Amino acid sequence: MPRRSAIEVASSRAETLAAAVQLASVVGLEGLTIGRLADRLGMSKSGLVGRFGSKEQLQLATLEQAADIFRRTVYEPASAAPAGLARLNAICDAWVAYLARPPFLGGCFLTTAMVEFDARPGPVNNAVKKVMRRWLAVLEREASTAIDNGELPADTDPKDVAFTINALAVGTNCDFQLNRNPGSLQRARRAMTAVLGR
Amino acid sequence: MPRRSAIEVASSRAETLAAAVQLASVVGLEGLTIGRLADRLGMSKSGLVGRFGSKEQLQLATLEQAADIFRRTVYEPASAAPAGLARLNAICDAWVAYLARPPFLGGCFLTTAMVEFDARPGPVNNAVKKVMRRWLAVLEREASTAIDNGELPADTDPKDVAFTINALAVGTNCDFQLNRNPGSLQRARRAMTAVLGR
DNA sequence: CCTACCGATCGGTAGG
DNA sequence: CCTACCGATCGGTAGG
Whole-angstrom Cα distance, residue B95 to residue B73? Predict the structure, then answer.
């Protein structure tokens, strides 16, 4: 029996993480137990521990993977739009589309992780904070550009714009996951327009 | 040994629920295990099961208790203000105060419960939906009155107002619990003012 | 990567 | 309300 090549190992790690993201989006990062994930992958618990080291390491890797998907889905494609207001609107559109047809079964992974770990200091809490800071920084930078472009009033606080867009996004995700009312997405988009369109 | 009087039983149930709300606000409704709560109350697991019947019944009773506290803290005192815009602003003020100095250790209980149970159909999910509907109905009714009073533009959709205020509240709670930045509360209040002040 | 196993905890029952 | 106990699952280790 030859040992697995580096590529096979990497792809098996990627497959493991893909399954982990799907599972955790439904049951949360705490519900992502070694036993359940091992079962779903048809492997033993100790095999999984061997790959990640501990449940916490698995949680961190899964969160990182989910953050990558969020970035690629919500705010990276928007860089095709001109910086400033147009790009902010592209981000809001992508975000609504992301929520309407989420790449994870259980809705926005980051919102769940944020709520799960907001009161539990530790590496996962720190990682969630970092992901959220990066996302808010993107919003804030585009808001700044929009102000420089004269697309938003000169006295606008870019941090206010970023904060409000994100709060609407997170709050809407919660409402939408609970009630599954597509009208919520339209309301949210209108509210974002109001923030960007004063 | 005389049996406990009805009053003693009731007060002991109330004390149990008070402890349950505090515990669940930190560890979530799923983390509210029979063993942990029994430990904290200095009683046996089976004694606790005897009081509530099952973990799910305990979760339902705890949620109801938390919803009562939310109601009494956030939107009942606002009925002292005149119906319409003034009352909406009183509710927003009370909500910011509630978040700044929450009656539960772990921040807004309802947000946590909403995220925890949004993907798990069952009695707890239904109860969370009911609580949220009641809260949104309060916001919507005051928005309608504000429109009738001419305090909001005639073409305002009261459902939009209720949705947006709630989304800001939930999203802000998540951000605030994670980052503990008091400035977030001021930003949120300003965003609510913008919704109510166009 | 596996089997076999560890002590802890889960929700809950039996019996009093 | 208690003690004693049930089978399942938790994160993880030992040993190969």
Answer: 8
